[in-house]
Amino acid sequence: MGKIIAVCTSERKGMRKKNVGEGVLKVNFGLEGDAHGGDWHRMVSLLAMESIKTMQDKGLKVGPGDFAENLTTEGIELFTLPIGTKLKIGATSLGEVTQIGKECHTKCAIFYQAGDCVMPKEGIFIRLLEGGAVRVGDSIEVIS
After folding, report:
1. H runs (alpha helix) in the chain
2. What is the pLDDT of residues 12-34, one digit of tens each?
């Protein structure tokens, strides 16, 4: 079982997200108030703190939200989960892994600083099957 380290949103696409501490995960949308929300297969993005630490170890001053992820987690190797894996988030939310990694059409500032970025390889995306509140410190658990 893992835990939620940050709950992050941004007002516009293409920018780093800010840890707002808590939010509402909505079925058919994603994280309320986030520019990437919508009824599609990438409703919510997740990245493990362990992946962020890899970039910190390369000398980058980065943290939760800097890779535009909605939920920063700890304790689960997210990118190894198969498509279709169910994740229980907090007390009531349930997500299903729909995509591992993503294609970056334009290189971000982090790529230019480090020559690499973890989100395209280690970030995952889920669609929500059940919604509810999510906050820093909540558990995240692989169900199946």
Report:
1. 49-56, 109-114, 119-122
2. 887 789 999 999 999 999 999 99
Q: Is 78 exposed, middle or buried (0-12, 13-18, 19+ CB in 10 A)?
A: buried
In one letter, which amino acid is 40? W
Radius of gyration of the chain measured on its C-alpha atoms: 14
Q: By three-state DSSP, how is residue 44 classified?
A: strand
Residue with tokens 């992050």: 8
DSSP notation for 101-127:
S---SS--HHHHHHS--SHHHH-EEEE
Question: What CA–CA distances, in Å, run from 32 to 9, 23, 25, 131?
Answer: 8, 7, 6, 10
Q: Is the pTM of this model over 0.85?
A: yes
The SS3 call for residue 134 is strand
How far does the chain reach from its first CA to its final CA, in angstroms? 12
Q: Please answer whether residues 101 and 123 qualify as being in contact, where contact means their C-beta atoms are separated by less than 8 angstroms.
A: yes
Q: Which of 130, 129, 131, 97 is nearest to 24 (CA)?
A: 131
Q: Is 84 helix (H, G, I), strand (E, B) or coil?
A: coil
